[in-house]
Amino acid sequence: VRVSGRGLRRVTRGPALDQWPTWSPDGSRLAFVRGKDAGAELYVVGAGGKGLRRLTRNHVEDATPSWSPDGRLIVFASKRARTGPFSLLVIPAAGGVASRVGGVRGGEPAWSPDGTRIAFARAAPGVTVETTNVYVMNADGSGVRQLTHERRGTVSHHPSWSADGKSIVFMSNRAGTSRGASLWVVSASTGGMRRLTTSVYEDVDPDW
């Protein structure tokens, strides 16, 4: 759809659940996930709805694709075992073998505009009440650094980079109010944080 709200056009068809669409850097393609749970696989399709290509065939849950700035690779989260946590993997956008990103566990990856870093979210280990933080690492999986330090039961996730690569917007219930999730911005270098929205609604899934 155009930013004006006009020109709505359907890209995919069929009975399956299609979700997590994300534009390629040149705007010519969309990566998305088709299916759910263990049947969720990664696909790429042209923006006009042609050229559908399936990238993964692993019979485990794949989710949240993000393109590298040059459009050659896609990083995504995958449950390599049906009962295990999500891991981060990279696969060629043209198709090929997926490889682990340095053994890092987490989800909702977002590639930085310069291609050198990946932001992601990860649940705190050993905590029974869901607690999730935002992290950043080098694109090869090294140098993992935690940006948010949430208290037990607080969820901060779905990071997205600013165009200059200096900041990351994310959603969080860290304010501790009954109003649910708000949007926050954190500095990718210093960890300095500021709140963007305060609403009676839930503000979720930001994209810079």
Query: Roughly what fraction of the amino acids lie in strands?
Result: 35-45%
Mean pLDDT: 92
Indicate the low-confidence ranges by residue numbers.
Answer: none
What's the story with the biggest beta sheet? 4 strands, antiparallel
**Spatial shape:** globular
Helix content: under 10%
- H/E element string? EEEEEEEEEEEEEEEE
Round the Cα radius of gyration to an integer and report it: 17 Å
N-to-C terminal Cα separation, in Å? Answer: 17 Å
What's the count of strands?
16
Q: In which order are the strands of the major sheet placed?
A: 1-2-3-4
Q: By helix and strand content, what is the structural category?
A: mainly beta
Number of helices: 0
What does this structure look like?
By secondary structure, this protein is mainly beta. Helices cover 0% and strands 42% of the residues. The chain has no helices and 16 strands. It has strands at 18-23, 29-34, 41-46, 53-54, 62-67, 73-78, 87-92, 99-105, 107-111, 117-123, 132-138, 145-146, 156-161, 167-172, 182-187, 193-195. It has a four-stranded antiparallel beta sheet, with no helix packed on it. It has a four-stranded antiparallel beta sheet with strand order 5-6-7-8, with no helix packed on it. It has a four-stranded antiparallel beta sheet with strand order 9-10-11-12, with no helix packed on it. The protein is globular and about 45 Å long. The mean pLDDT is 92.
